[in-house]
Write a structure and sequence with these properties.
This protein is mainly α. Helices cover 75% and strands 0% of the residues. It contains three helices and no strands. It is elongated.
Length: 71
C-alpha cells in the first residue's frame, strides 16, 4: 500500500491516532519476535503472520477514511 502522507497526518491527529499507535507497536513487536525468535513453532509463526495481516488491514481501513479528505 502506498501511504498518503496527508491521510496519515490527518488520521494520526484524529480520534484514530491512539489506535494507529497501538497498531504500529503491536505490529513491530510481532514482526521482531517472528524474525528473532527461533523457538516459535510453524503454527505460532502462522498465527503471528495472520495477526500482522489483520493489523495491516485495520491500518489501511483507518487511513482510507482520510484519503481525499479536504480540510
Amino acid at each position: 500500500m502506498q501511504i498518503n502522507v496527508r491521510a496519515l497526518w490527518l488520521a494520526t491527529n484524529s480520534a484514530y491516532g491512539e489506535r494507529l499507535l497501538q497498531i504500529a507497536q503491536e505490529h513491530s513487536r510481532l514482526d521482531c519476535d517472528l524474525h528473532e525468535n527461533d523457538q516459535l513453532s510453524l503454527l505460532e509463526k502462522e498465527v503471528y503472520k495472520v495477526r500482522i495481516e489483520q493489523l495491516r488491514n485495520e491500518r489501511e481501513m483507518i487511513l482510507n477514511l482520510f484519503d481525499g479528505v479536504k480540510v
